[in-house]
From TrEMBL:
It is found in: Membrane. Belongs to the drug/metabolite transporter (DMT) superfamily. Plant drug/metabolite exporter (P-DME) (TC 2.A.7.4) family. The chain crosses the membrane at residues 53-74, 80-102, 142-163, 175-195, 222-243, 255-276, 282-308, 320-341, 347-364. Keywords: Membrane, Transmembrane, Transmembrane helix. This is EamA domain-containing protein. It is a multi-pass membrane protein. GO terms for cellular component: membrane. The keyword Transmembrane applies. The lineage of its organism: Eukaryota, Viridiplantae, Streptophyta, Embryophyta, Tracheophyta. One of its GO terms (molecular function) is transmembrane transporter activity. It comes from Aegilops tauschii subsp. strangulata.
Length: 424
């Protein structure tokens, strides 16, 4: 009996020790799981925080790629008139399904006034802006045109002042920043035109024969003509933004409006191209080469993917965050242009580009502190590059949040009064 009692006591003790050890192992495993879960959560948070930065970097690289392949195709004989037609046709085909699906119940009734405005928008953006920009880039260089187009916010700011859409208080630090930014961007553009200087050598450009930039720099007339066309493209683009903000108040269907602009712009561009290329019908023929790639790339990447990325990042971080990455496109384009197109980068272009970027950030800072427009949640986002904007009425009060788009298929996040981005 004593032996049995002793065995039972030993068995209970060993069971107790076993339960204690199992409990300790479970608590340790649970603690390790919690630590792992916390670490994983921190890792996913870091990844999510990095997504907007990575998306904007890749987006600017995508825009730079469009600049390079477009100029390469133009310099190989592709007609810019035909390029504009095909690119907008692809953009229309890509964006139409999203407009039909997402805005099937909110599309307002079309009126004569709205249609006239759409025709004006199509004339300003797909017809004038794109053709002028491509001609300017072809006569100068991809890097030069990309740098010069950073004057867009300054041009729109001046137009907004003329049209009394922008209010400036000279005693306000933010208004002073906008004025200083405008002056700096104009000064940088003038410097890029008037002063070229020696060619800046990079490790990958030593010993190579430069084309494009160096050649056109020697031809002052062609260079000046290309510069004037690029500036004129910025003026047309600025007018497009101003008219579009007015159109969206009457037709608040962003995707549908963009498809209509691209579609009508395709028709207008076709009419212009038929007249301009009437003696060269072969210009309409594109094979499986860089010309076809340029059309598809511009229509899908710069009119499809870019819109979605811009819309998501704009809602998360705001338009100023998106704008801050624009100079990266200029840098990537300059580097890629010097490697692929063998374009020369002159000292004057570098100094002028730096001044323009400084002025751009002054203007961005001044606009970001205005408190006029804030980023709003957008109900429909899918496939195009449309800037996120607040439309204001003539009395300066907010009339709603809108996503603005251009027929160019490029993305620009901007204030309804003064856009603060660039890109074609």
């Amino acid at each position: 009996s004593a032996v049995v009692k002793s065995n039972r006591s030993g068995s209970s003790y060993h069971s107790y020790i076993k339960r204690v050890r199992i409990g300790a192992w479970r608590r340790k495993a649970l603690a390790n799981f919690q630590v792992g879960k916390t670490t994983m959560g921190m890792g996913w948070k870091a990844v999510n925080d990095a997504k907007p930065y990575l998306a904007m970097v890749l987006l600017q690289v995508g825009f730079a790629g469009m600049y390079i392949i477009a100029v390469a195709s133009l310099k190989r004989g592709m007609s810019h008139f035909v390029l504009v037609v095909y690119r907008n046709l692809v953009a229309t085909a890509v964006m139409a399904p999203f407009a039909l699906y997402f805005e099937r119940g909110v599309r307002p009734k079309m009126t004569i006034t709205i249609f006239i405005k759409i025709m004006g928008l199509a004339l300003l953006e797909p017809v004038l802006d794109q053709n002028l920009y491509y001609m300017g880039a072809n006569l100068t260089s991809a890097g030069f045109a990309t740098a010069l187009v950073n004057i867009l916010p300054a041009v729109t700011f001046v137009l907004a002042l003329i049209l009394r859409m922008e209010k400036v208080r000279l005693r306000s630090l933010h208004s002073q920043a906008k004025i200083a930014g405008t002056v700096l961007t104009v000064a940088g553009a003038v410097l890029m035109v008037l002063y070229h200087g020696p060619v800046v050598q990079f490790p990958w450009t030593k010993g190579q024969h430069h084309a494009g930039g160096a050649a056109t720099a020697a031809d002052g007339a062609a260079w000046l003509k290309g510069t004037i066309m690029t500036v004129a493209a910025c003026v047309a683009w600025s007018c497009f933004f101003i008219l579009q903000s007015s159109t969206l108040r009457d037709y608040p269907a962003e995707l549908s409006l963009t498809v209509l602009i691209c579609g009508v712009g395709s028709v207008m561009s076709t009419a212009v191209a038929v007249v301009a290329e009437r003696a060269n019908t072969h210009a309409w023929v594109i094979g499986f080469d860089t010309r076809l790639f340029t059309v598809v790339y511009g229509g899908i990447v710069c009119s499809g993917v870019a819109y979605y990325v811009q819309g998501v990042v704009s809602r998360q971080r705001g338009p100023v965050f998106v704008t801050a990455f624009n100079p990266l496109c200029m840098i990537v384009t300059a580097v890629m242009g010097s490697i692929i197109l063998k374009e020369a980068i002159t000292l004057g272009s570098v100094i002028g580009a730096v001044i323009i970027v400084v002025g751009l950030y002054f203007l961005i800072w001044g606009k970001s502190k205005d408190g006029i427009s804030q980023v709003s949640d957008v109900s429909v986002k899918g496939a195009g590059e449309l800037p996120l904007t607040t439309a204001t009425n003539g009395h300066g009060s907010s009339s709603g949040k809108h996503v603005l788009g251009n027929g160019n298929g490029d993305v620009h996040v901007l204030d309804v009064e003064t856009p603060t981005t660039n890109g074609h």
